[in-house]
Amino acid sequence: MESTAQLYLDLMKKVLANTIYEDPPIPASWAPAVEYDELNRRLGVDWPSVAHTMIGIRRLENVEHCVRTVLEEGIPGDLIETGVWRGGTCIFMRAILKAHGVRDRQVWVADSFQGMPSADSSTHPGDRELASDRYNDLIATDLPTVRGNFERYGLLDEQVRFLPGWFRDTLPTAPIDRLAVLRLDSDLYESTMDTLVHLYPKLSPGGFVIIDDYHIPVCAEAVHDWRARFGVDDPIEDIDGLGAFWRRSG
Q1: Domain with 213 in it: what CATH number?
Q2: pLDDT digits (tens, 9 = 90+) for 219-242
Q3: Domain containing residue 132
């Protein structure tokens, strides 16, 4: 028999991805569908018009696996996502802590809260091709809206901390002592590299790195360049054909 906590978390996944009311997607170049499709939403390949996360059920399950593992094994540290859109994944992280009665860890919510940078602000060629503010009317979600989304679930409290601004400016001095789960959802080479350079040293052995955008070539390039530079060879595991993760061995 499932516990009350697990029933709550299973419902949270359905609500955050909105597989209950099945909101239609916003057509995009990578997912032109205009009607709700259960498989697309489960895999997180559409752009929901209403749901608070676009990562889909499979990647939410991965977040749950990683967070539950560090809680069960006592791996010290907080949880963070860099690049949060409407905040749904961070809301789910906070829900996991709530469901398990954890009061000594924080969820860090890091984002520009103004969308993606303009192409001319990037130095990496792949970023200049990919980075664009042309989608910012849909991607950009301001801080009051994200805070309000936490409030809707009754999960905005002292265990939620916000880091507004570009990662190159906020992460080097972020007041984070230790991390147990580091989740990146920032698409670009520079933002991925900035996150790994400044936050991975704070990740506890046994903690997890989750790369939501591993399927994007410039993101994967940044991951492999960083791993080669710092000699990280922990095996990368696939999540759903789009995202990937690994566990820090030391």
Answers
A1: 3.40.50.150
A2: 999 999 999 999 999 999 999 999
A3: 52-247
Q: Burial level of 137, CB count in 10 A (0-12/13-18/19+)?
A: exposed
Query: Do the beta carbons of residue 245 and residue 239 sit within 8 Å?
Result: yes
**Greatest CA separation for the chain:** 55
Which residue shows structure tokens 């749901």?
Answer: 51
Beta bridge partners of 31: 28
- In tens, the pLDDT along 12-50 reads 999 999 999 999 999 877 778 899 999 999 999 999 999
**Backbone Cα Rg of the chain:** 17
State the Cα–Cα distance between residues 131 and 189, nearest whole angstrom.
10
CA–CA separation, 216 and 38 (whole Å): 23
The model's pTM is: 0.95
